[in-house]
Amino acid sequence: MPAGFAEAIMNNVILELKGVSKHFTLSGIRNIGKVVHAMDDVSFSLNKGESLALVGESGSGKTTTASVIAGMYEKTSGEIYLDGQPVLPFKTREASLRYKKKVQMIFQDPFASLNPTHTIRSILERPFLIHKLAGSAQELEAMLSDSLEMVGLSPAQEYLHRFPHELSGGQRQRVNIARTFAVSPEVILADEPTSMLDVSIRIGIMNMMLDLKEKKNVSFLYITHDLAGARYMSTKIAVMYAGMIMEIGPTEEVIANAVHPYVQLLKASAPAPQEGVRKSAIPAKGEIPSLVNPPLGCRFHTRCPYAKKICSEAVPAMRDIGNGHLVRCVLV
Amino acid sequence: MDADAILELRSLKAGYATNAGFVRAVDDVSLTLKRGEFLGIAGESGCGKSTLAYSIMRLLRDNARIESGSILFDGTDITSLNEKAMNEYRWTKMAMVFQSAMNALNPVLSIEEQLIDAVLAHKQVSRAEAKKTAIEMLELVDINPERISSYPHQLSGGMRQRVMIAMALLLKPSLLIMDEPTTALDVVVQRSILQKIEELRHIFGFSVIFITHDLSLLVEISDSLAIMYAGKICEYGPSREIYASPNHPYTKGLMNAFPTLTGPMSRMGGIEGQAPSLLAPPPGCRFAPRCASAVEACTTAVPMLRTTSPGRLCACRLCGGNHE
Known about the structure:
Number of strands of chain A: 12
Shape of chain B: globular
Largest sheet of chain B: 8 strands, mixed
Helix content of chain B: 25-40%
Number of helices of chain B: 10
Largest interface: A-B, 39 and 42 residues
Number of helices of chain A: 11
Structural class of chain A: alpha/beta
Largest sheet of chain A: 8 strands, mixed
Number of strands of chain B: 12
Strand content of chain A: 15-25%
Oligomer: heterodimer
C-alpha cells in the first residue's frame, strides 16, 4: 500500500491485526510437542463503519480469528490494535469489560447461545447490568424495549417474559443481535450468524444487520463460508485457507478477478444458477490439509493445479497487486 | 401409469403421531419421476421433504405412517407390500444416501465390512465376489481401494459421503434418493460430490431425487424441480423454466433470498414471517399468512396444484389455471 494512502486511512482504522497467530497445544501423551496451527500470520485492518467478510471453509481458522479478537483465546504471537491502542492481556476485570464493551460477538448457533433456563428479559438485561448502563429500573425497561424493537421483535412486552424455546430460530438470532448491540459496541464479530437459519429468513436477518450497521455506524467482521453472502454483506473480503489469509481486497474486485488459485476454486465451486448451464469439472483434488503438520511452503500447494517446486519451499508473502488487493501466491 | 415413469406418487399423505396430535408432514403429494430424470425437491426445514423421502423408502420412524395414497414403483404399489417384499426393493431397486454420512456409517465396523454386508444382505454371491463389487464401486467414487479396511473415523467428511454413495450404488438401483447429501460439506467438496453423481448417472443411468434447502444448487443440477411448503408441493416444473420465471409467490420469495456472485447487487427481500405449524395448518393456502399478494379467497379455500402451462404446475389461485 502506498505510504500516503495508508496515512490517509490511518485515522479511520478501528481494528487492526498484524501478523497474528494462534496455535493450540494438543493434550495427551501421544501428542506431546504437537500444535494445531489454527491461525498463522493473519493481518488486516477494519475501518470505522466498514464491513469485512472473512470467508473460508470449515477448519480454515475464521472462527479462531474472531475468538482471538473477542479475547476468548490468547493469541500466540502478533499484535492486535483497537483504536490505535495495542490490545494486551486483560489484567483486571475493568480492562476486560472496557474492551468487551467495544467488541462484541454474534454466535453461529441461536439454539445454543441463549441460556434455555433464562427468560429473554434476563438474557437481555445482563449486558446493561454488567456494563452499568442503566441509571434506574425505568431506564432499564426502556432500554430493553428499545433493543427488542430495534431488531423487529415488537411489541417488546410480548417477548420479554418468554423463554428461548418459545421463539423460532430467526427470532432467537434477533435476540442475539439485540444483546450484541445492547452495549453500543464499535466492532461486531458476526460468526456465521445466518448459517443455521432457514433460507427464507436469512436475507431478513442480513438486511437487518446491514441497516443496524449503517444506523449505529459500527464495523462488522462478517464470517461466512458463502462467497455470495459475503458479497451481499461486505465491501472488503478476506479469504482464508488452512489458517492463513490467501487473498484480501475490495469485495467486488476479489470476486470478479480472483487471483489466488484457491479463491478461483472456491468461486468455481459455488452454486451458480444464473449461468444457465452445468459447469465443467473443476480441478478440485484433495481436501484441507492437517493443521498439526501444515504443508511446508504455501498451504494450498498440495491441491493447487498450478503448483511449482518453489511453492513447497517457502510460505509466500502477501503481495500487493494494487488497489488494496493483496494475494499470497508466488505465481502472481 | 406412464410407461416411462419409474416412480409415481398419487395423493400421498404421511405424518407423525405426536403427543400434541397428528402432524401430517406430507399432505396430498402427487409426483411422477421419469426414468433417468433428476428431480430436485426444495423446501425449508419442516416442509416434509425428508418425510417424503423416507416414505418412498418405507423407512419411516415408528411413530410415523403413510396414511393414504399410493407409491407406484415401476408400476407396483409399494405402500401395500410387507416388510419381506419391501426388502427386495430397498437397496436393490431403490437406495438412499442419508444426510449425515458421519452418523449413517457404523463407527466400529470397517468400510469393507459395511460394503460387503450391504451386498450379501440382498444378493446371493460369495464374500469374495461381494468384496470385488465393493472395490469396483470405491474406485468409481475415487476412493483408493486400499482404504477399504479403514474405519469411518479415518476418513474425511467428503470421503465418508462418497463411501455412502458407493454403498447406495452397490446393487445398481434404478432410483437413488439423496437427502441433503452435501449440506454438511464444504463448498469445494460439495462440488466434487455433485460432479461425481453426474458422472455415475451417465454410467448407470439411474434416476435421482435430490432433496435440499439450497435452491440455487438445485436449479443448476436438476432437470425438474418441486418446491415444497408446509407439506404440500406448491410449484413443479422444469428447473430452468422455474428459475427464469417462478409462478408461486413462495418460489418467487425463495428466488429472491439468495445473493448471487455475479451481476448487479441489489437489496433482496426474503420472506417475512415463518412457516406454519403442521399441527394446525392455516385453512386455505398455507402460504397465505406470509404472502404479500394474498387475497381474501386465499385464506378460505386450499388451492389445488394445477397446470399453468405445458409441464408446469402451480398451487396458487393468482397464477392462472382453475383452482376450484
